[in-house]
Write the C-alpha coordinates for this entry.
Amino acid sequence: MNNETKKTNWKRIANIYSSCRRLACCVIVLSLAPASVDAENQQPPQPIPDEVTFNAHIRPIMSKTCFACHGPDEKNNKSDFLLNSFETATGPLPSDSDLVGIKPGAPQQSEVYLRITGQSETGEQMPPADFHHELSERDKELFRRWIQQGAQYQQHWAYAPITRPDVPASKDLPTTNPIDAFIVDRLAQEGLKPSRRADRATLLRRLSLDLVGLPPTRKQVQDFIEDRSDEAYEKVVDRLLASPQYGERMAMFWL
Protein backbone atom coordinates (compact mmCIF):
# COMPACT_ATOMS: atom_id res chain seq x y z
CA MET A 1 0.00 0.00 0.00
CA ASN A 2 1.59 3.31 -1.11
CA ASN A 3 1.60 6.54 0.88
CA GLU A 4 -1.16 8.17 -1.17
CA THR A 5 -3.51 5.26 -0.49
CA LYS A 6 -2.69 5.41 3.22
CA LYS A 7 -3.44 9.14 3.33
CA THR A 8 -6.75 8.62 1.54
CA ASN A 9 -7.78 5.87 3.95
CA TRP A 10 -6.87 7.99 6.99
CA LYS A 11 -8.91 10.90 5.61
CA ARG A 12 -11.92 8.61 5.17
CA ILE A 13 -11.56 7.31 8.74
CA ALA A 14 -11.29 10.86 10.06
CA ASN A 15 -14.40 11.94 8.14
CA ILE A 16 -16.37 8.95 9.41
CA TYR A 17 -15.26 9.66 13.00
CA SER A 18 -16.21 13.33 12.69
CA SER A 19 -19.64 12.43 11.27
CA CYS A 20 -20.24 9.96 14.12
CA ARG A 21 -19.38 12.60 16.71
CA ARG A 22 -21.80 15.11 15.18
CA LEU A 23 -24.51 12.46 14.98
CA ALA A 24 -23.96 11.45 18.60
CA CYS A 25 -24.25 15.08 19.75
CA CYS A 26 -27.52 15.51 17.84
CA VAL A 27 -28.93 12.32 19.33
CA ILE A 28 -28.03 13.43 22.88
CA VAL A 29 -29.58 16.88 22.44
CA LEU A 30 -32.75 15.51 20.84
CA SER A 31 -33.14 12.77 23.44
CA LEU A 32 -32.69 15.01 26.47
CA ALA A 33 -34.51 18.31 26.08
CA PRO A 34 -37.76 17.43 24.30
CA ALA A 35 -38.21 14.17 26.20
CA SER A 36 -37.98 15.86 29.60
CA VAL A 37 -40.46 18.52 28.60
CA ASP A 38 -42.89 15.95 27.22
CA ALA A 39 -42.55 13.84 30.34
CA GLU A 40 -43.47 16.80 32.53
CA ASN A 41 -46.44 17.70 30.35
CA GLN A 42 -47.71 14.13 30.35
CA GLN A 43 -47.65 13.73 34.14
CA PRO A 44 -51.19 13.53 35.52
CA PRO A 45 -52.09 16.36 37.91
CA GLN A 46 -51.78 15.46 41.57
CA PRO A 47 -55.13 15.29 43.36
CA ILE A 48 -55.83 17.70 46.19
CA PRO A 49 -56.04 15.84 49.53
CA ASP A 50 -59.25 16.06 51.51
CA GLU A 51 -57.34 17.29 54.56
CA VAL A 52 -54.63 19.88 53.95
CA THR A 53 -52.05 20.12 56.75
CA PHE A 54 -49.40 22.71 57.42
CA ASN A 55 -46.40 20.38 57.69
CA ALA A 56 -47.24 18.18 54.72
CA HIS A 57 -48.58 20.75 52.24
CA ILE A 58 -48.25 24.39 53.29
CA ARG A 59 -44.86 24.61 55.00
CA PRO A 60 -42.99 23.38 51.87
CA ILE A 61 -44.72 26.05 49.76
CA MET A 62 -43.98 28.81 52.27
CA SER A 63 -40.35 27.69 52.55
CA LYS A 64 -39.90 28.10 48.79
CA THR A 65 -41.91 31.25 48.17
CA CYS A 66 -42.77 33.10 51.40
CA PHE A 67 -40.22 32.69 54.19
CA ALA A 68 -37.48 34.61 52.34
CA CYS A 69 -39.38 37.81 53.15
CA HIS A 70 -41.94 36.73 55.77
CA GLY A 71 -40.13 33.95 57.62
CA PRO A 72 -38.44 33.27 60.95
CA ASP A 73 -35.26 35.19 60.06
CA GLU A 74 -36.59 38.52 61.32
CA LYS A 75 -33.28 40.35 60.86
CA ASN A 76 -33.13 39.70 57.11
CA ASN A 77 -36.84 39.81 56.29
CA LYS A 78 -37.92 42.40 53.73
CA SER A 79 -41.32 42.73 55.41
CA ASP A 80 -42.59 43.24 58.95
CA PHE A 81 -45.44 40.81 58.29
CA LEU A 82 -44.48 37.29 59.36
CA LEU A 83 -46.01 34.02 58.18
CA ASN A 84 -44.05 31.57 60.32
CA SER A 85 -46.51 31.52 63.23
CA PHE A 86 -50.28 31.46 63.65
CA GLU A 87 -50.27 34.58 65.86
CA THR A 88 -48.45 36.80 63.38
CA ALA A 89 -50.02 35.35 60.23
CA THR A 90 -53.58 35.87 61.50
CA GLY A 91 -52.94 39.42 62.68
CA PRO A 92 -53.45 42.69 60.80
CA LEU A 93 -50.95 43.76 58.18
CA PRO A 94 -48.37 46.29 59.44
CA SER A 95 -48.98 48.34 56.29
CA ASP A 96 -52.77 48.39 56.69
CA SER A 97 -54.47 47.49 59.97
CA ASP A 98 -57.79 46.99 58.17
CA LEU A 99 -56.41 43.97 56.30
CA VAL A 100 -55.83 40.57 57.90
CA GLY A 101 -53.09 38.29 56.63
CA ILE A 102 -54.92 35.01 57.19
CA LYS A 103 -58.46 34.74 58.51
CA PRO A 104 -59.12 31.11 59.43
CA GLY A 105 -62.16 29.75 57.60
CA ALA A 106 -62.36 32.69 55.20
CA PRO A 107 -59.93 32.60 52.24
CA GLN A 108 -61.65 35.53 50.48
CA GLN A 109 -61.04 37.69 53.55
CA SER A 110 -57.41 36.61 53.88
CA GLU A 111 -55.01 39.03 52.23
CA VAL A 112 -52.37 36.33 51.84
CA TYR A 113 -54.67 34.22 49.68
CA LEU A 114 -55.93 37.23 47.73
CA ARG A 115 -52.40 38.33 46.89
CA ILE A 116 -51.13 34.93 45.78
CA THR A 117 -54.17 34.60 43.48
CA GLY A 118 -53.97 38.18 42.17
CA GLN A 119 -57.34 39.21 43.67
CA SER A 120 -56.11 41.79 46.19
CA GLU A 121 -57.53 45.30 45.88
CA THR A 122 -54.05 46.62 46.65
CA GLY A 123 -52.89 45.26 43.30
CA GLU A 124 -49.95 43.44 44.87
CA GLN A 125 -49.03 39.97 43.60
CA MET A 126 -47.21 37.50 45.81
CA PRO A 127 -44.62 36.30 45.40
CA PRO A 128 -43.40 39.36 43.47
CA ALA A 129 -42.23 39.03 39.87
CA ASP A 130 -38.57 39.61 40.75
CA PHE A 131 -38.68 36.54 43.00
CA HIS A 132 -38.82 34.43 39.81
CA HIS A 133 -40.97 31.74 41.36
CA GLU A 134 -44.69 31.40 40.77
CA LEU A 135 -47.16 29.33 42.70
CA SER A 136 -48.92 26.65 40.71
CA GLU A 137 -52.69 26.40 40.60
CA ARG A 138 -52.40 23.38 42.88
CA ASP A 139 -50.38 25.41 45.41
CA LYS A 140 -53.05 28.11 45.43
CA GLU A 141 -55.82 25.56 45.90
CA LEU A 142 -53.90 23.99 48.79
CA PHE A 143 -53.68 27.43 50.41
CA ARG A 144 -57.38 27.99 49.91
CA ARG A 145 -58.39 24.67 51.45
CA TRP A 146 -55.95 25.05 54.32
CA ILE A 147 -57.37 28.45 55.23
CA GLN A 148 -60.91 27.17 54.73
CA GLN A 149 -60.18 24.29 57.11
CA GLY A 150 -58.95 26.63 59.85
CA ALA A 151 -55.34 27.46 58.88
CA GLN A 152 -53.95 25.33 61.69
CA TYR A 153 -50.19 25.63 62.15
CA GLN A 154 -48.14 22.65 63.28
CA GLN A 155 -44.89 22.37 65.15
CA HIS A 156 -41.99 21.20 63.02
CA TRP A 157 -42.05 17.41 62.96
CA ALA A 158 -38.53 17.21 64.42
CA TYR A 159 -39.72 18.87 67.65
CA ALA A 160 -43.19 17.35 67.87
CA PRO A 161 -43.80 14.46 70.30
CA ILE A 162 -43.97 11.05 68.69
CA THR A 163 -47.50 9.70 68.42
CA ARG A 164 -48.79 6.50 66.90
CA PRO A 165 -51.06 7.35 63.95
CA ASP A 166 -54.31 5.56 63.25
CA VAL A 167 -53.95 2.82 60.65
CA PRO A 168 -55.92 3.80 57.51
CA ALA A 169 -58.71 1.52 56.43
CA SER A 170 -57.73 -0.25 53.22
CA LYS A 171 -60.38 -1.05 50.61
CA ASP A 172 -58.32 -1.84 47.52
CA LEU A 173 -55.92 -4.46 48.82
CA PRO A 174 -55.92 -6.93 51.71
CA THR A 175 -52.97 -5.95 53.88
CA THR A 176 -50.64 -8.18 55.85
CA ASN A 177 -49.31 -5.48 58.17
CA PRO A 178 -50.07 -1.84 59.07
CA ILE A 179 -47.30 -0.53 56.79
CA ASP A 180 -49.17 -1.90 53.77
CA ALA A 181 -52.27 0.04 54.82
CA PHE A 182 -50.34 3.33 54.87
CA ILE A 183 -48.81 2.62 51.46
CA VAL A 184 -52.18 1.78 49.91
CA ASP A 185 -53.71 4.90 51.45
CA ARG A 186 -50.98 7.14 50.02
CA LEU A 187 -51.28 5.53 46.61
CA ALA A 188 -54.99 6.30 46.68
CA GLN A 189 -54.24 9.96 47.52
CA GLU A 190 -51.96 10.15 44.48
CA GLY A 191 -54.55 8.52 42.23
CA LEU A 192 -52.50 5.34 41.87
CA LYS A 193 -53.27 1.66 42.34
CA PRO A 194 -50.93 -0.97 43.79
CA SER A 195 -49.26 -3.42 41.47
CA ARG A 196 -50.07 -7.09 41.61
CA ARG A 197 -48.23 -9.10 44.22
CA ALA A 198 -44.93 -10.42 42.85
CA ASP A 199 -44.37 -14.15 42.50
CA ARG A 200 -42.44 -15.96 45.22
CA ALA A 201 -39.21 -16.20 43.23
CA THR A 202 -39.22 -12.43 42.65
CA LEU A 203 -40.00 -11.74 46.30
CA LEU A 204 -37.09 -13.88 47.43
CA ARG A 205 -34.72 -12.26 44.96
CA ARG A 206 -35.68 -8.75 46.15
CA LEU A 207 -35.35 -9.76 49.79
CA SER A 208 -31.99 -11.42 49.29
CA LEU A 209 -30.52 -8.48 47.35
CA ASP A 210 -31.76 -6.01 49.96
CA LEU A 211 -30.44 -7.86 53.00
CA VAL A 212 -27.22 -9.54 51.83
CA GLY A 213 -26.58 -8.00 48.41
CA LEU A 214 -26.56 -11.40 46.71
CA PRO A 215 -29.17 -13.22 44.62
CA PRO A 216 -30.56 -16.45 46.05
CA THR A 217 -29.33 -19.78 44.81
CA ARG A 218 -31.54 -21.98 42.65
CA LYS A 219 -32.07 -24.36 45.60
CA GLN A 220 -33.07 -21.50 47.92
CA VAL A 221 -35.63 -20.31 45.37
CA GLN A 222 -37.03 -23.81 44.95
CA ASP A 223 -37.22 -24.38 48.73
CA PHE A 224 -39.09 -21.09 49.21
CA ILE A 225 -41.53 -21.86 46.41
CA GLU A 226 -42.29 -25.29 47.88
CA ASP A 227 -42.65 -24.02 51.45
CA ARG A 228 -46.34 -23.15 51.80
CA SER A 229 -46.34 -22.62 55.54
CA ASP A 230 -47.54 -19.33 57.01
CA GLU A 231 -44.05 -18.62 58.35
CA ALA A 232 -42.19 -19.28 55.07
CA TYR A 233 -41.28 -15.62 54.46
CA GLU A 234 -40.34 -15.00 58.09
CA LYS A 235 -38.03 -18.03 58.09
CA VAL A 236 -36.18 -16.70 55.04
CA VAL A 237 -35.81 -13.29 56.70
CA ASP A 238 -34.39 -14.90 59.85
CA ARG A 239 -31.96 -16.97 57.78
CA LEU A 240 -30.68 -13.95 55.88
CA LEU A 241 -30.36 -11.78 58.99
CA ALA A 242 -28.33 -14.51 60.70
CA SER A 243 -25.91 -14.90 57.77
CA PRO A 244 -22.41 -13.35 57.78
CA GLN A 245 -23.22 -11.71 54.45
CA TYR A 246 -25.86 -9.57 56.14
CA GLY A 247 -23.28 -8.18 58.56
CA GLU A 248 -20.85 -7.55 55.71
CA ARG A 249 -23.48 -5.67 53.73
CA MET A 250 -24.48 -3.47 56.67
CA ALA A 251 -20.84 -2.75 57.55
CA MET A 252 -20.05 -1.80 53.95
CA PHE A 253 -21.93 1.50 54.26
CA TRP A 254 -19.87 2.46 57.33
CA LEU A 255 -16.53 1.50 55.85
Notes: The longest helix spans residues 3-42. Residues 44 and 251 are 41 Å apart (CA to CA). DSSP finds eleven helices and two strands in the chain.
